[in-house]
Amino acid sequence: MPKAKKDPNKPKGVKSAYIFFVEAERAENENANLNFAELSKSCGAKWAEMDDEDKAPYTKKSEKDRKRHQDEMRSYQPPASDSDSDDDGPKRKKKKKTKDPNAPKRPTTAYFFFAAARRPGLQKDDPSLSITEVASRLGQIWRGLDDDEKQPFQDQAAKDKQRYLKAIEAYNKTL
């Protein structure tokens, strides 16, 4: 769904005292060739060291900007929304498709047959391994196997796929 377009006539938001301070620092350090990250770090450090008296001019500017914003918002009229537009209104969550409990179970892949066969041996060899570590090792072993070593598991997966295709065909006839 496309993002809703922002109204260009809506008044700008209120600037904080810190934003006014950063703008002043940027203007002051214009020729210093500081990149954005360096300027941000230096401004943050300076702002943290400043006391309320030093921050007062920026706070006054912020309060003045807040009044400006309030005045502009009083006279602002948002555009009328088109009832045809999909962008308006609250976004609805997509409903999760409910799974039919009678539907056949999807076919198992060769890797899962391999993992089911090898997992007990790995856990027996090193019982201190966590579930994620076992899964990681199984993946490494699987990637290291050549095609001949993977073939028995691929044969099992092919048989399971045939089982699934027959079961789904029978299931679709019942619908």
Question: Keywords, please?
Answer:
6 helices; 0% strand; single chain; DNA Binding (I), subunit A; 175 residues
Outline: elongated
State the fourth-level CATH superfamily of the largest domain: High mobility group box domain
> What number of domains?
2
Compute the separation of the termini in Å: 32 Å
Largest sheet: none
Q: What is the radius of gyration?
A: 32 Å
Summed over residues and divided by their number, the pLDDT gives a mean of: 88
Description of the molecule:
By secondary structure, the chain is mainly α. The chain folds into two domains: about 15-75, DNA Binding (I), subunit A (Orthogonal Bundle), CATH 1.10.30; about 110-175, DNA Binding (I), subunit A (Orthogonal Bundle). About 60% of the residues lie in helices and about 0% in strands. The chain has helices spanning about 15-30, 35-50, 50-75, 110-125, 130-145, 145-175. The protein is elongated. The two termini are about 30 Å apart. The mean pLDDT is about 90.
Secondary-structure map:
Layout: H1 17-28, H2 36-49, H3 52-75, H4 110-125, H5 131-144, H6 147-174
In short:
This protein has 175 residues and is mainly α. It has 6 helices and no strands.
